[in-house]
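Give me the fold.
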Amino acid sequence: MNSGPPALAALGDFHPADTWQVHVNHIFYGTKGPGIHNHFQTYVSRDHRLAHALADAFHSFCQSLPADDTAPLEVQEWGVGNGNLAARFLSRLRDIDSTGCAYPRLQYTLCDYSLEILKGVEANPHLQDHAGRFATAHLDARDMGGLAPHSLTWVLSNEIWDDLATRVLIKSQGTLYEEYLQPLIDRAVLDGDFETFLNRFENADLEALQAQPPFLEHIVWERAFQRTDLGDWPFGEVVRQHMESIGDDIPVPINAGAFGTLEKAHRLLAPGRSFGYTGFDYGMLDLEHLNWEGRPYFKLYGGQYTSMVNFPLLADVGRAIGFQNVDREPQHTFVHRNLGEPVISLVELVQNHPRVAEMAPWDVDVLMLETLQALNNRYRSPYPNRLDYPTLPGTPKKQRKLMQQLIQNMNARGVPDTVAYITESEVRAADKTLRKLGYREKDIQRSFHPANAAIQFCRLTLR
């Protein structure tokens, strides 16, 4: 006789979605530390092209400052990842700053609320090339204390808004309802007494939870909706007006934690000599995407609970705070403009291969590496790198051996990651080899001209 599904035990009561998201993400970052990078990749984890585009734009801004402006250029990055974005930004700025208008005056501070993440950043060897130009700081991007008002030249963040407290609203027949969550888990995945674990989970006892077998990815989220009043919500009137443009029964993320970062940036940026606040994240770029029925509004990465970013609402809140100029666009467009030609990631190219949907996961890995090798005949990174591509559990011996051979033969200055920007000319230069791998012209065309998507990587700049 087949046993039924496991009986799930509650890890707490129903609370608004942001309450549980903040709690679980605190545990995730506090127990994983730099190991979080094993669960997801971003466009700045190993690549340099987004960092270079930012350095070029920042350098142009510095050149536009008055000649008698010799004050330090104070830059803060909020949410630092593995430090690669800062390292590549600083290297590019140093290389292009022939007049000394930017790099010698720069103080770049990497800020994060996780001490474990900061320890990993401080060990990044590429940052050591810029000793004296950077520092680290243990702080929360939403905390309004600390630095003096109007002291910063620029604030930068990459994929932090999706991690911050996010409430969820649904409108139905003119009434607003808020999403509530309850975490459940199968006791069998835990080690030791459940009540002891529950106490450690409720109190976020990070040291004790680190000793547990992996459990965050086993949490099951129960959902419910309760009628709500926006009277005590941050920027409640802006949120109310925003919801008037949303159709019925569509879950809408309200990135309240991100509101705090906008307020803090507005307070800290120096009027008249500020490059603004630039944030990158993934979510809905405009109202069309927000009203897209069935689009996702959250994701789970190894137990981390992330929310899609509502860019139109952040833009409205930014204006309400006092930013005069608010600009948003797809991240690919920003990098395209810097390089002068369209860009995609390797993953996007492989996803458009005609047979990828029917391939076993390890065969997709082989295709990924073969595609990388084809592109490396033209692609040249300014930075040497070692491609890290672990094999999946269960990969057959034949594919495992082939993957090891492909990795060993990779160009040290080739494409650094599967999530790295590659240009159309680099893809076209590999056209003959890509054809042998099964790519067709229409597959390449579709990669560079994809159908409209509800969720995109986007840039928001507020000045």
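Residues 342-449 form one domain.
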